[in-house]
Amino acid sequence: MLNFEYYNPTKIVFGAGTTAALSRLVPETARVLLLYGGASAEKTGTLADVRAALAGRVVHEFGGIEPNPSFETLEGAIAQVRAEKLDYLLAVGGGSVIDGTKFVAAAAVYDGDAWEVASSRGAVVQRALPFGAVLTLPATGSEMNNGAVVTRKATHTKQPFRSEHLFPKFSILDPTRSYSLPLKQVANGLVDAFVHTTEQYLTYPAQALPQDRFAEGLLQTLVEIAPRALAAPDDYDTRSNLMWAASLALNGLIGAGVPQDWATHMIGHELTALYNIDHARTLAIVLPALLQVRRDSKRDKLLQYGARVWGITDGSEEERIDAAIARTRAFFESVGIPTRLSGYGLGQEAVEAVLAQLAAHGMGKLGERRDINLDVSRAILQSAL
Ligand code: NZQ
Ligand code: ZN
Questions:
Q1: What does the DSSP assignment read for 202-235?
Q2: Atom 22 (ligand 1): residue with closest C-alpha?
């Protein structure tokens, strides 16, 4: 096992009807900015419940945070926090709203150019406003981690950043909030959580037995619940397991003490920045191709993954690895997500465009061994055509 420090201070309040807990979680004297996305939070009644639970506090609102939240939009929220002297943020939504809130929490109290919060990858963040979250979409894990991704539309830059100051104080995880999700978003959530797990598991053996078994359990859980998560939107048990599995996949626990890859995410972010493809869909395009191209350096873990997650024990090593990759691709396709660039109307031109972006963003050394250079990324993208 590798050396590690593990820290996660986010309080989780889980279960149906828990939005009312906001009345004790948000300080009574707080001057709150409530941040949300488009129409869904209002339509589903979530905002009404949140407003009721915050009664008695000064509450301002900032709506319109878009999927893949943009710096350009978030600047408005930063200005509002400063003008109204607000001191507590509450995100109501999915990963985009929570990530956007993290950016505002840091940027509103940062003296320099706000974009530096992201462009420094969080290094300039010395403090942040406190914030909590009411999660409406199980997928990213943002509700229980200190990372975020914001996009600068002007330059097509999708920039991840993180800081110890950017853990939510609390997150409310009410699985019934997810009942109203379009099935496409449910599928996205299943795939995003699956790939968060593989990024921290499908690398090389580190003799980290609890982390491996935990990761395998999460992957098996996601595969097991996927059909029902899509077929029965109001099945409480299924949606509970999806919501908690997605948080566990990226709350730092399975990543402690093990090598981590994240190349699929970095290449995927460029596909979103260029073509506006949903985050999880970019992962479904890149991961099977990456596993194919990296099959030698990931050999031991691919064999372990095949055996333990998919029950693949027959055949030569090459055959078992082929089968493990095929099962991964088939899982993504089974939830309705195409796994090739051609499925999104993209061809060779996209390979060149993504490579140019990776070069421009200093993404020439990716993967758990930092040896996915631009040539390897090219091979991955070619294999994803
Ligand atoms: O805008 P509204 O109307 O609210 O609609 C949203 C949005 O269109 C809708 N939605 C959310 N909850 C709903 C709902 N519709 C009906 N009922 C509900 N209960 O869903 C759409 C997508 O929302 P979004 O927040 O964009 O999705 P997701 O949670 O998948 O977040 C994606 C973003 O998170 C980043 C991604 O890059 C992307 O920008 N990520 C953040 C990570 C982190 N902070 O750790 C890690 C991830 O790898 C990822 O990069
Ligand atoms: Zn992700």
A1: SS-----HHHHHHHHHHHHHHHHHHHHHHH-TT-
A2: 67
CA distance 33 to 77: 8
Ligand 1 mean position to 225 CA, how many Å? 20
Burial (CB < 10 A; 0-12, 13-18, 19+), residue 28, is exposed
Q: How confident is the model at residue 345 (pLDDT cuts 50, 70, 90)?
A: very high
Write out the residues surrounding ion ligand 2, Cβ under 5 A.
192
Of 281, 244, 286, residue with least CA distance to 266: 286
Whether residue 183 has its Cβ less than 6 Å from ligand 1: no
Q: What is the ipTM of this complex?
A: 0.99
CA of 209 to the centre of ligand 1 (A): 32
Q: For domain 11-177, is the CATH number 3.40.50.1970?
A: yes
Q: How far apart are CA 300 and CA 246, in angstroms?
A: 25
Kindly report the number of other CB atoms within 10 A of residue 97's CB atom.
29
Q: Is the pTM of this model over 0.90?
A: yes
pLDDT tens for 36-69 read: 999 999 999 999 999 999 999 999 999 999 999 9
What residues contact residue 214 under an 8 Å CB cut-off, 6+ apart? 248, 253, 254
Q: Where are the domains of the chain?
A: 11-177, 183-383
CATH 3.40.190.10, domain 183-383, yes or no = no
Nearest to 250, CA basis, from 292, 288, 206, 283: 283
